[in-house]
Inverse folding.
């Protein structure tokens, strides 16, 4: 028979081991009945990131994409880039060529894209047009482009693959790539954002995929902290509120649950 002291020490060690094992298991929820847990709310994402008013080249949370970008220098948030590295590698092994044609975009880049479209659609006379005509032009542009300050591309979590032409995605390579992405991307955290079957919002975009483990919080923080006063500094910004851009174009996606 074991001495009582040894028995009691062994019980304590066994108990500690069981607690440690349990804490490391998937079922552990940090129940405070075992030991006090320090829980803190994650910091909200800074407004500059949500609005694209920062330089990813010098931001410590961002990393450059170097191996599968179609052109120019591109950045993503580090964790999104790591997940994308793995996704692209698996794609290669499966005979699917994935490359990124757009990743993080700044407010200034989005403003350039936006105002070029405004100028084209209004023959350069947007400011002189009546408000309802301005709203009509903006609605058309919003089919495929976000207002500056409201683009998910500001966040460093979203990418466009291969082509922004629907014709490409209707072709053989596009169909095969899309089927492969639908089967495999979610395992790596990437989901189709502008899916079919939503009411309103931006049109269906088979090329646009989002790293939801990060972008879900970006969207939550966006809705919680950004007001229409923050969406300023480009042609048509004064129409953002009455056109309900935040609920209609940002919240209106599956990833906001
Ligand atoms: Zn996109």
């Amino acid at each position: 028979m074991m001495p009582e002291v040894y028995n009691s020490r062994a019980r304590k060690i066994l108990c500690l081991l069981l607690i440690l094992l349990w804490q490391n298991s998937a079922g552990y929820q940090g129940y405070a009945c075992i030991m006090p847990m320090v829980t803190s709310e994650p910091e909200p994402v800074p407004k500059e990131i949500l609005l694209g008013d920062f330089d990813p080249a010098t931001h410590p949370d961002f990393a450059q994409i170097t191996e599968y970008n179609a052109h120019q220098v591109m950045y993503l948030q580090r964790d999104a880039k790591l997940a994308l590295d793995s996704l692209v590698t698996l794609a290669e092994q499966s005979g699917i060529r994935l490359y990124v044609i757009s990743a993080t975009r700044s407010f200034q880049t989005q403003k350039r894209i936006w105002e070029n479209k405004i100028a084209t659609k209004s023959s350069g006379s947007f400011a002189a047009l009546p408000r309802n005509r301005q709203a009509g032009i903006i609605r058309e542009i919003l089919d495929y482009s976000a207002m500056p300050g409201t683009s998910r591309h500001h966040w460093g979590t979203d990418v466009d693959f291969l082509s922004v032409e629907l014709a490409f995605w209707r072709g053989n390579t596009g169909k095969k790539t899309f089927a492969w992405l639908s089967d495999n991307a979610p395992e790596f955290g990437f989901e189709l954002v502008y899916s079919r079957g939503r009411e309103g919002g931006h049109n269906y975009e088979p090329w646009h995929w989002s790293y939801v483990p990060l972008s879900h919080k970006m969207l939550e923080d966006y809705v919680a902290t950004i007001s229409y006063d923050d969406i300023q500094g480009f042609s048509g910004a004064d129409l953002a509120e009455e056109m309900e851009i935040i609920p209609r174009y940002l919240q209106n996606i599956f990833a906001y649950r």
About this structure: Residues 4-24 form the longest helix (21 residues). Residues 102, 153, 158, 160, 208 surround zinc ion (CB under 6 Å). The domain at 47-250 is CATH 3.30.1380.10 (Muramoyl-pentapeptide Carboxypeptidase; domain 2). The chain is about 40% helix and 10% strand.
